[in-house]
Design goal:
This is Major facilitator superfamily (MFS) profile domain-containing protein. One of its GO terms (cellular component) is membrane. GO terms for molecular function: monosaccharide transmembrane transporter activity; symporter activity. InterPro entries: MFS_dom (IPR020846), MFS_STP/MST-like_plant (IPR044778), MFS_sugar_transport-like (IPR005828), MFS_trans_sf (IPR036259), STP/PLT_plant (IPR045262), Sugar/inositol_transpt (IPR003663), Sugar_transporter_CS (IPR005829). This protein is mainly α. It folds into 2 domains: about 200 residues, MFS general substrate transporter like domains (Growth Hormone, Chain: A, Up-down Bundle); about 230 residues, Up-down Bundle (Growth Hormone, Chain: A), CATH 1.20.1250.20. It is about 75% helix and about 0% strand. It is built from 22 helices and no strands. The chain is globular.
Length: about 500
């Protein structure tokens, strides 16, 4: 349903020369560490909230309920809004801070936001590690949220702008890869610290300072993106960095694209207002609203947040629950490598649509088994428990090569330079709003809807797959400053998109 690529200047990226240089690799690895902050928190939070020592100190009512084995507590053992606020407060803070990050990213560069994010995340980790009451926990989570708001705003943009068009998909997915590695490492950490009584949970939360420190130190040596330097009027420096990261002197064609985009960007004084213009309607609806919201409505982050909690609720012991979480997070890492290998070959749309079918099937099987065999005060048999773990792994794998990485890659590609930082802030804010909402509502929904929560996710995945099929054009291997031209041939978006850019 999507229109094909329209050649711009006769290039389609064909005249953009590049080599993979050590300078380019270093810059991308350091920037991608921003994903490890996000991932470590995703992985560590669910594990900590299932640890008895943590619950005894801060949520004794939940701890007592957890020890009971009444029929009505099968789905409802962890239904506590303050406990879920511990998780979701981070995402509400990130939602607000990303708008400040937009200003820093546009005026001071992507590197500036990355540095601010690492410092804030470090402070939050220290607060959480030494917390003695719920207020300290929440304050720490707010600092972590500010760090994630800045990091998630800047890192996907940084990677997309640094990457050559032909491998942009794989390079951008370094963010998702480090996110998944952060989740996996956090689950290993939780598995070990769960055996350290009574302060193991403090070690889990405090170790978040490690990736933040690495990101800050690496960020000192991080180059700014050529796109950002040109946007700031630093043309000579922008060309010099472009030559260095491409490893060639002949960057005339690519630099000409940057200059053209920069001229339009400097004419925009109100980038957020510009997002509302009809010519930016496809970027707003697809990249700014649809994809970041749907990424969370898949239900994946609920599984990541609460995997140990879910497995315990389904009858797994504490150690077995954390071990099962390690299995699912390992699947997520493997799936990300799969996505990196094929995204620039098969394209974004193929991965979205294939994964949609796989995720729907997994959710339906989960719902059927839970409806027939669970919730009567009896633990699931070993056979059914294994099937549940397999279905969750299939769901995680599908997400890991589709909505996980593509939920950050595609929006970072769609916006033209003049609205890119504002657009990415909208992406992050919408993403974090739905992340927080799902985090806050999932356990109470699990309690009241029971197996129906998985049927709800299946229905939502069907809707979002149709959204992709009808509205998203294929962006693989298209130069980032030329992607806006795709909408001129799209069956729907061509009604809104003109040939020029109107400054606001």
């Amino acid at each position: 349903m999507a229109g094909g690529f329209v050649h711009h200047g006769g290039t389609n990226g064909e005249g953009f020369e590049y080599r993979i240089t050590s300078y380019f690799v270093f810059a991308c690895i350091v920037a991608a560490l921003g994903g490890s902050l996000f991932g470590y928190d995703l992985g560590v939070s669910g594990g900590v909230t299932s640890m008895d020592d943590f619950l005894k100190d801060f949520f004794p009512k939940v701890y007592r309920r957890k020890q009971e084995h009444l029929n009505e507590t099968d789905y409802c053992k962890y239904d506590n809004q303050i406990l879920t606020l511990f998780t979701s407060s981070l995402y509400f803070a990130g939602l607000i801070s990303t708008f400040a990050a937009s200003h820093v990213t546009r005026t001071r560069g992507r590197r500036g936001s990355i540095m601010v994010g690492s410092v804030s995340f470090f402070v939050g980790a220290i607060f959480n590690a030494f917390a003695v009451n719920i207020s300290m926990l929440i304050i720490g989570r707010i600092f972590l949220g500010i760090g994630i708001g800045f990091g998630n705003q800047a890192v996907p943009l940084y990677l997309s702008e640094m990457a050559p068009a032909k491998i942009r998909g794989a390079v951008n997915q370094l963010f998702q890869l480090t996110t998944c590695l952060g989740i996996l490492i956090a689950n290993f950490v939780n598995y070990g610290t769960n055996k350290i009584h009574p302060w193991g949970w403090r070690l889990s939360l405090g170790l978040a300072a490690v990736p933040a420190t690495l990101m800050f130190i690496g960020g000192i040596f991080l180059p700014e993106t050529p796109n950002s330097l040109v946007e700031q009027g630093k043309l000579d420096e922008g060309r010099r960095v472009l030559e260095k990261i491409r490893g060639v002197k002949n960057v005339d064609a690519e630099f000409a694209d940057l200059l053209e985009a920069s001229e339009a960007a400097r004419a925009i004084t109100q980038p957020f207002r510009n997002l509302l213009q009809p010519k930016n309607r496809p970027q707003l609806i697809i990249g700014g609203l649809g994809i970041p919201a749907f990424q969370q409505l898949t239900g994946m982050n609920s599984i990541l947040f609460y995997a140990p909690v879910i497995f315990q609720s389904l009858g797994f012991g504490s150690g077995a629950a954390l071990y099962s979480s390690i299995i699912t997070s390992t699947m997520l890492v493997v799936a990300t490598f799969v996505s990196m290998a094929v995204v620039d070959r098969f394209g974004r749309r193929f991965l979205f649509l294939e994964a949609g079918c796989q995720m729907i099937l997994s959710m339906l099987v989960l719902a059927i088994i839970l409806a027939l065999k669970f919730g009567r005060g009896v633990e699931l048999s070993k056979g059914y428990a294994v099937v549940l773990v397999i279905m969750i792994c299939l769901f995680v794998a599908a997400y890991g090569w589709s909505w996980g990485p593509l939920g950050w890659l595609v929006p970072s590609e769609l916006f033209p330079l003049e609205t890119r930082s504002a657009g990415q802030s909208l992406v992050v804010s919408v993403n974090l709003f739905f992340t927080a909402a799902i985090a806050q509502c999932f356990l109470v929904s699990l309690c009241h809807l029971r197996y129906g929560i998985f049927l709800l996710f299946a229905a939502l995945i069907l809707i979002m797959s149709l959204f992709i099929y009808f509205l998203l054009p294929e962006t693989k291997q298209v130069p980032i400053e030329e992607i806006h031209l795709l909408f001129q041939n799209h069956w729907l978006w061509k009604k809104y998109v003109g040939n020029g850019r109107t400054p606001v």
